[in-house]
Write a structure and sequence with these properties.
The protein is mainly alpha-helical. 60% of the residues lie in helices and 0% in strands. The longest helix is centred in the middle third of the chain and has 22 residues. It has a single domain, classed as Hypothetical protein af1432.
Length: 192
């Protein structure tokens, strides 16, 4: 298990900060979904569940400010979080989920985990929404992996970013199943 210093923020403080900065419910649901997947990944990989969960929860903290300017996404969040005393361990990984735009490189388990976790949420939600009941509880892992192979389905979801699960040692089918099961635990909370 990796040992890291205190994240510098509690989960409750992180959620309050998120709600202060994001007004769009769908974005908040995306952050909650990312959090629950990150917690599941941390448990599986023997990492710090609290730190990983907080990174998932806060990764898009600045999206309503920077959505029009991807070159700032992650930088503004890092600045806000540093001002709140959040550990650089968390702020750095949040910046690197947007490594492509920021000309950074992901190298750690934590960085790859956040990237694949936050990206798979979009595919899972898209699959749920094509089901008659639009419920995540109806979705099977096989449906998600099958639709990932269809490039025009949920075209905004980067298959390459999802595939970073391989860089944390989890095969795609297993990652999809873990992510789906994690999101099902908060189905009501995220409106699915």
């Amino acid at each position: 298990m990796s040992t890291h210093s205190d994240p510098g923020i509690t989960r409750d403080e992180a959620f309050s900060l998120l709600k202060k900065n994001l007004k769009n419910d769908k974005l908040i649901f995306h952050c909650l979904a990312s959090e629950v997947i990150m917690r599941s990944l941390a448990l599986k990989l023997g990492e710090d569940e609290n730190a990983w969960g907080i990174a998932g929860l806060l990764h898009d903290l600045d999206y309503e400010i920077t959505g029009h300017d991807p070159s700032q996404h992650g930088l503004v969040a890092a600045k806000i979080l540093k001002e709140k005393g959040v550990s650089p361990f968390i702020t750095d990984v949040i910046m690197k989920h947007n490594a492509e735009e920021l000309k950074l490189e992901r190298s750690s388990l934590f960085e790859h985990a956040l990237t694949c976790a936050e990206t798979i949420t979009g595919m899972i939600v898209a699959v749920a929404l094509v089901y008659p009941d639009k419920k995540i509880t109806s979705v099977k892992p096989k449906s998600v992996t099958k639709r990932m192979k269809t490039q025009h389905f949920a075209r905004a979801v980067s298959r390459e970013r999802v595939a970073e699960c391989e860089k944390i040692g989890i095969p795609l089918n297993e990652f999809v199943a873990l992510s789906l099961e994690a999101m099902k635990t908060i189905a009501d909370e995220i409106g699915l």
